[in-house]
Design brief:
- The protein is an alpha/beta fold.
- It has 29 helices and 18 strands.
- Strands 5-6-7-16-15 form a 5-stranded mixed beta sheet. Strands 4-11-13-14 form a 4-stranded mixed beta sheet. A 3-stranded antiparallel beta sheet has the order 1-2-3.
- Helix 7 packs antiparallel against helix 8 and helix 16 (about 400-410) packs across helix 17 (about 435-460).
- The longest helix is centred in the first third of the chain and has 32 residues, at about 155-185.
- The radius of gyration is 26 Å and the shape is globular.
- The chain starts with a helix and ends with a helix.
């Protein structure tokens, strides 16, 4: 390894990100793969769907196009994901015809109007990275074989599971050999001595990992990308965390330094390369991993590598990876300040997760406390028992403003007239606000029932739709049971439903309560007619509602109650309800970018929102309505009991860059974060932005190509956003963000 080689050759690595530059590749393209995979499906020979799926995955590993880059430290290219997903999609469409008898008309109406949705979720998984690092592929295969020998007479399902693992692992070792051989061949073509030596080391590292677990820091990092590539691209099951990388990699770093294999600069070199490889993956919604947090014994996981990671991330100035910072009272303040400094400098792909609340939420769901202390985070902010849970974090959605719409319009969607919920009375039938609020809760309950019913129906077909031998092989419980992780093999086999649009809902309810039932400015029927007309012809009232009505996000208990109560109510309804694969349902309250698509099909709201406009984000106030400062926004967001949201949620905060400057600014940011955690908020993420910079970037984007913003659960470049999305940040920065 040449010291500072990463910086020397970064321009060559940039080719991969900006131009998909590949000089050295071999194998079948997607169309050719699909043609051959069809032959596997046609040649069934009385094989079970599980075995056919395993053979397809192994074929991808053995034949999909692979490539190496002479300047990358870590190999893992495998062009098989499109083929894997297309194959699964074909299976799914075929299998779904059997669901027709279980699909109620009201569910189809709910889907079409985006009142609620339900779907299979194979896209949010977390491997047991401890097994990956401690056992390696050879060790995990040996564990499979040992358990298979104990299960020889326990039925065809278990036999097929173990056989599927054997088939896919044969493909894994073939894939590693293909990559190693390609790296060796390409190394001989290199005139640059670094490129040549690097590829030789890549090949050596890969061949070591085919035989044993990783033993060095470079091998541990290579193992991470190798495993990611196999599960993500050949299995077609999206891996949504690389685990607690500082804790996973620290023993390897320590050993390398003690043996004299690396000094700290060498560690930094590998960390730069590791982070940049995450970046060049271009993962949908960023490549996530965790740092800090707690071990099972309650001690802090933070270590020297945690600091090195953040320092190198700041220096790279990239929008990806996404860092889950697990905050606890035992996390050192200087590490927290380093993470906040990263955010302050615009390297803000960091979300802070409250360890205490996350662990309590999973425990309240019925999981053992010893499994929840060192929880993992999947995707954006979704939590799960580390190495023991398949949480399926995005099965269903509930549109809370649409539930209120159904309550006002007697179970119907205002825009289409379709029935989306039970008849709870029309606008003229409610004599008190409590009557309306009861109808709203009835609609929420009905939406939840439909989502859980259809999700469970989908799950009954998981054995025909998806297998995950690679993911399952990392789970000790799945291997011991002889059952695929998606078919109920994990210790906890859960499903998740997200209810969102909280601020839109709460602001609408308080407006109706004040205007109709307290101030009596108009009847509910008159208000309903105004919403049906999309506020047209009622400009004065519209302005009054927007400017004078109380709003969530300003620490007003009367408004915050509706958010708190809805979460309590849906938590009791959803959490712990049996699903279709031996687990239970979990509630979450994040919106991510669904708020745009669901908002487009949601009629005008009583808070002044026009038909088709965006719904409120995550646990945030409606854009530019948090007018009493960031602390008030935090207090509103901390009003709910987040042990009721084991699927996670988040508060997005925007701070003016002027308010975050200097030592005082850092103290203020740290105080805000600690206030949020002490008040038992679930998760928080920050944007520190300058209004002048945003306006300039919108006007002259070519000058601000690296300006990044935290979008909803991942980072993007500001100049890549639509004007509508940019305007939302500008408006928020104009109106709020004061400390």
């Amino acid at each position: 390894m040449i010291k500072n080689a990463f910086n020397t050759y970064r321009d060559k690595l940039d080719r991969d990100y900006f131009g998909a530059y590949i000089d050295y590749a071999e194998g079948l393209d997607t169309d050719s793969l699909m043609s051959e995979i069809e032959k596997i499906s046609e040649n069934k020979e009385n094989k079970s769907p599980v075995i056919l799926m395993a053979e397809t995955e192994a074929f991808i590993l053995k034949n999909a196009r692979i490539s190496v880059d002479p300047y990358e430290y870590f190999a893992g290219a495998l062009d098989g994901r499109d083929a894997a997903l297309k194959t699964r999609d074909l299976r799914h469409r075929f299998n779904m015809k059997f669901l027709a008898p279980y699909t109620r008309p009201i569910y189809l109406n709910g889907i079409n109007t985006l009142s609620f949705t339900a779907a299979p979720d194979f896209g949010h998984t977390a491997a047991d990275w401890d097994s990956v690092m401690k056992l390696g592929f050879s060790g995990m295969l040996e564990r499979i074989r040992q358990n298979a020998s104990k299960m020889a007479d326990n039925g065809k399902e278990k036999a097929d599971f173990y056989k599927s693992c054997e088939i896919v692992y044969e493909g894994i070792f073939a894939y590693i050999d293909r990559l190693s051989s390609l790296a060796e061949r390409v190394s001989a073509l290199q005139e640059d001595s670094f490129a040549r030596d690097n590829l030789i080391e890549v090949a050596k590292t890969l061949r070591n990992l085919a035989k044993r677990p990783p033993q060095t820091l470079r091998e541990a990092m290579q193992m991470t990308f190798l495993y990611y590539s196999i599960q993500h691209r050949a299995e077609g099951v999206h891996l949504r965390t690389l685990g607690p990388v500082d804790a996973l990699f620290y023993p390897f770093m320590k050993s390398d330094i003690e043996k004299g294999l690396l000094d700290e600069e060498g560690v930094r070199e590998y960390m730069r390369a590791f982070l940049y490889t995450c970046y060049t993956e271009k993962a949908v919604a960023n490549m996530p991993f965790a740092i800090a947090g707690l071990y099972k014994n309650g001690e802090s996981r933070a270590n020297r590598l945690s600091y090195i990671l953040l320092e190198e991330y700041i220096g790279l100035n990239i929008i990806d990876p996404k860092i889950h910072f697990c905050y606890s009272s035992k996390t050192p303040d200087d590490l927290i300040e380093l993470a906040l400094e990263s955010v302050r400098k615009g390297r803000n792909s960091i979300v802070f997760i409250n360890c205490d609340v996350a662990s309590d939420a999973l425990t309240a769901l019925g999981e053992d406390r010893e499994d929840t202390i060192d929880f993992t985070i999947v995707g954006c902010y979704e939590i799960a028992a580390y190495g023991k849970e398949v949480p399926c974090t995005c099965n269903g959605c509930i549109n809370l403003p649409k539930a209120l719409e159904a309550a006002i319009f007697n179970g119907k969607d205002l825009l289409t007239g379709k029935v989306i919920g039970p008849e709870t009375g029309d606008a003229e039938s409610f004599t008190t606000f409590d009557d309306l609020y009861k109808a709203y809760r009835t609609q929420c309950e009905a939406f939840a029932d439909e989502v859980m019913h259809m999700t469970s129906s989908y799950e009954s077909y998981y054995p025909l739709d998806v297998i995950s031998p690679v993911l399952s092989s990392t789970y000790a419980d799945s291997v011991a049971k002889g059952i695929d992780a998606f078919h109920g093999g994990a210790k906890y086999n859960n499903s998740s439903i997200n209810a969102f649009g909280s601020a839109t809902m709460a602001d609408s309810l308080i407006a109706i309560k004040k205007l109709v039932f307290e101030e009596k400015k108009l009847t509910l029927k008159e208000f309903a007619d105004i919403l049906a007309a999309n506020w047209e012809g009622h400009g004065e009232l519209h302005s009054y509602v927007l400017s004078k009505m109380p709003k969530y996000g300003n620490n007003i208990a009367e408004v915050d109650f509706f958010v708190k109560d809805t979460i309590d109510f849906l938590g009791k309804k959803i959490n712990g309800h049996p699903n279709g694969r031996g687990g239970v349902f979990r509630l979450g309250t994040f919106s991510i970018d669904w708020r745009f698509t669901f908002g487009a099909k949601t009629a005008a709201s009583a808070n002044g929102r026009l038909s088709g406009e965006t719904l409120s984000k995550n646990m945030c106030a409606t854009t530019a309505c948090d007018l009493k400062g960031v602390t008030a926004h935090i207090l509103s967001a901390c009003a709910p009991n987040y042990t009721n949201t084991p699927n996670g949620t988040v508060l997005d905060l925007l701070l003016h860059s002027s308010a975050a400057r200097g030592e005082d600014g850092m103290k203020a940011m740290l105080a805000l974060l600690k206030t949020f955690m002490i008040k038992r908020g679930f998760a928080v993420q920050f944007n520190v932005l300058s209004l002048d910079t945003l306006r300039a970037a919108q006007k002259e984007p070519e000058k601000y190509k690296t300006l990044q913003v935290r979008l909803c659960g991942w980072n993007v470049l500001f100049c890549n956003l639509s004007k509508k999305e940019q305007d939302e940040y500008i408006l928020q920065c104009e109106k709020t963000g004061n400390l």
